[in-house]
Amino acid sequence: MNYLFNPGPVNLSKRVRNALLRPDLCHREPEYLELLQEIQQRLLQAYSLEPHRWQVAVLSGSGTAAVEAMLVGLVPEKGRVLVICNGVYGERMRDILHSHNLPYALLEFNWEEAIQPEVLEKAFKRHKDLSHVAVVQHETSTGRLNDLAAVGALCRERGLPLLVDAVSAFGAEQLRAEDWGVAACAFSSGKCLHGIPGLGMVLLSQEASNGLQKNRNYYLNLQRCLSSPNSPLFTPALHCHYALQEALAESAEQGGPAVRRRLYLHRRRLLHEGLEAAGLRPLVPTPQAASSTSAFPLRGMSYEALHAKLKKQGLIIYAAQGRLAGRLFRLSVMGEIPDAVFRRLARRIGELYAR
Ligand SMILES: *Cc1c(COP(=O)(O)O)cnc(C)c1O
């Protein structure tokens, strides 16, 4: 058995895995609609969001599909998005906008630093034509949790809707969508929600839903998806719904996102204490770090060697991406993994660094 320390897909709990064995189901039957509606309700309940103010579009596709659907669905041709970037996933939002020929301006921060509100304010003064701001909540490439409250406050002052890539945050990190002025956020079934990969979701405020673009794209079209709630337009990734419904029930029984965040923090502590003994410290200091994922400098070790030695023992660590490749390795604490395995992983890495 392999333990996955990557930020999704995650090791499944027994009950989520067993949910995949439920009866075959046609998506034109009322049972599918009940399943979909339960998923939508549970997603809103997880963050105490009012169903008359918020909607969730459920698409078949990975997290990137949800991010793309959100950006393409909400950014008008005459608008301009300020993309705040301090890692690979900020760059991905820029690339998505670029590939759809949608107007944007990039505000890039050092990938090892937090978003600086003063710099953001200056960017607002420089770009008078902005229609939206886009930001990643948990920048998974470095393990940084961007301060949505601070970014959101500045956006609200200017009436700019905030679009959030919450793919590796939703289900564990805080999300005070109303207070932070979030207009929409995108996430997926297979990360902090502990389902299987295959569903990409977009949470939309009422204002955002009202402003959806109609015919810009076809398949990942939020307007089309939400306007036919009683009959899915395309064959959905049905079994992913089974798994997500079960995963959401499991999370709710455990106490929801706040409890999951505490669980992650506990696991992270087990890892960090072990690794600190070997002299390894995470790239992002704890107060600015996401609960689930940390990046550690490789310090002369080759990633391939480290990965191969750990893989022999069923411990799957994760490489860094983009310009950080070859400099860092990453460890995530999502999914169904016993505490003892986090201790074992920390011990094994410690031993490899001691040689
Ligand atoms: C994983 C991730 C994505 C992309 O998700 P896929 O499911 O791989 O398409 C996007 N944004 C962030 C922040 C992520 O962590």
Summarize the structure in words.
The protein has about 350 residues and is α/β, with parallel strands linked by helices. The protein folds into two domains: about 240 residues, Type I PLP-dependent aspartate aminotransferase-like (Major domain) (Aspartate Aminotransferase, domain 2); about 100 residues, Aspartate Aminotransferase, domain 1, CATH 3.90.1150. Helix content is about 40%, strand content about 15%. The protein has 13 helices and 14 strands. The strands form four sheets. Strands 2-10-9-8-5-3-4 form a seven-stranded mixed β-sheet, sandwiched between helices. Strand 3, helix 4 and strand 4 form a beta-alpha-beta unit. Helix 2 runs parallel beside helix 10 and helix 11 runs parallel beside helix 13. The longest helix has 21 residues. It binds pyridoxal-5'-phosphate. The site of pyridoxal-5'-phosphate has 14 residues, from helix 3.
